Amino acid sequence: MLERKIKMGKEMKGHVLLLPFPAQGHFSPMLQFAKRLASKGLKATIAMTISVTKSSYAEAGGVQVEIISENGYTREGVHGSFKDVGSRVLLSIIEKNRYSSDAVTCIVYDSICPWALEVAKENGLFGASFFSQSCSVNYIFYQVSRGIIGLPVEETVSSIPGLPPLEISELPTFVSDLEVYKVALDLFLGQFSNLDKADSVVFNTFDKLESKVVKHMRKLWNVLTIGPAIPSMYLDKRMEGDKDYGLNLFEPSEDPYIKWLNARETGSVIYLSFGSIAVYTNEQMDEVANALRQSNKYFLWVVREEEMIKLPKNFIEETSDKGLVVTWCSQIEVLSHSSIGCFITHCGWNSILEALSLGVPMVTMPNFADQTTNAKFVADIWGAGIWPTADHKRIIKRDKLEASIRNVMEVDIADTIKKNISNFREMTRDAMEIGGSSFLNIENFVKSLQVVRK
Ligand SMILES: O=c1ccn([C@@H]2O[C@H](COP(=O)(O)OP(=O)(O)O[C@H]3O[C@H](CO)[C@@H](O)[C@H](O)[C@H]3O)[C@@H](O)[C@H]2O)c(=O)[nH]1
């Protein structure tokens, strides 16, 4: 191990090198964290693949961007090529700055790339693992990784400290469906292979949201909850320039879908998005389309280009007086729009945090990965939405979906959900406010980097 002493003058708080896993849901929260660090006087460099690079991200919010070549990463090669290329890129950035005033002092890496911690430690740097999914989900993975929960799981799991009893269908699918998700399970169990060596373990969540499980995890690692990692503008309407709140580049959008929303009444529109990866069957997409028709409500539906083919024939034309289908939108801007009354979501963790932060009730349609467990929390633990029952083929039928939409938007149950969700909205603000739990954890993270290290 290379021994080196990094001395930082008052003006230099350190240089954090961040390595997100190349997928939208992993990259976005880490970029927000990077912006918060940059706003606190740290130099922040994010190393990312071209596949998640959009022009709007470049140099965003004072964060320097280093590109990892696309050739170095294929989804199939997560274990191989991304590790090799990623390690080389990290090293080259460390070397480039080694003897300058911008010497890298810390690596923040996506928790599913534990090899990056080895790079940090071999170079005498502070290493922080960044988890882009909830504490609850990761505590389940931890229990599996240590053999505390044996696989295959054959009955309801009631023994995890800090978590409610979870039926098999409520566990992450990587744990419940071993045949399909073997590679993914290994990746997520691998998060804990060297975690004991990490200086900080950072989660995109906030204390009050997962208080019980966070308490248990703090017995194991230096857990810092720093979320929700969304632009500050959407949390508290504070504008750019307030340094303590991180940077945001908010400008009211002129996009056609925002203009379309502007013409709709408060709480009248259903927003649907299934994130950047989830793939539903043709049958499920058909059921969703028909639920929308039956509900006769306004809707804005994000359908990724490659999924468009699954929409019923002529659906877009036939519903054009009620709905708008787009291939991508600024979700956070949409969720913060007053016209949105319901979010039909695949339950990606970022989508959940965004909906809670912006106070939008959810109808959950989990697809895979952590989404099933997230749906359980939304519906049964937080009371922030409804998880419609699926049939024996795991399809949520149109009638059930329509009923859930009405329950969330119209009838009595909606009042309870709206009250709960509005409490969460307050809680997210409290967490990120000066003195709030996430605010203080970010401060502590920054302070810990200023300790002179040998
Ligand atoms: O039209 C869209 C659709 C999505 N988003 C944004 O893209 C992100 C999507 O993230 P998430 O909701 O977490 O979904 P995925 O992209 O599916 O995320 C993957 O990564 C997450 C974090 O690890 C996991 O929780 C998910 O299960 C996994 O599918 C969010 O910030 C959305 O606001 C947009 O801006 N516009």
From TrEMBL:
UniProt keyword terms in alphabetical order: Glycosyltransferase, Transferase
Molecular functions (GO terms): quercetin 3-O-glucosyltransferase activity; quercetin 7-O-glucosyltransferase activity
EC number: 2.4.1.-
Alphabetized Gene3D superfamilies for the sequence: Glycogen Phosphorylase B
Matches recorded under CDD domains: GT1_Gtf-like
UniProt xrefs under InterPro entries: UDP_glucos_trans, UDP_glycos_trans_CS
SUPFAM superfamilies: UDP-Glycosyltransferase/glycogen phosphorylase
PROSITE patterns noted in UniProt: UDPGT
Family matches, as Pfam families: UDPGT
PANTHER family assigned to the protein according to its UniProt record, in alphabetical order: GLUCOSYL/GLUCURONOSYL TRANSFERASES, GLYCOSYLTRANSFERASE
Homology family: Belongs to the UDP-glycosyltransferase family.
Name of the protein this chain belongs to: Glycosyltransferase
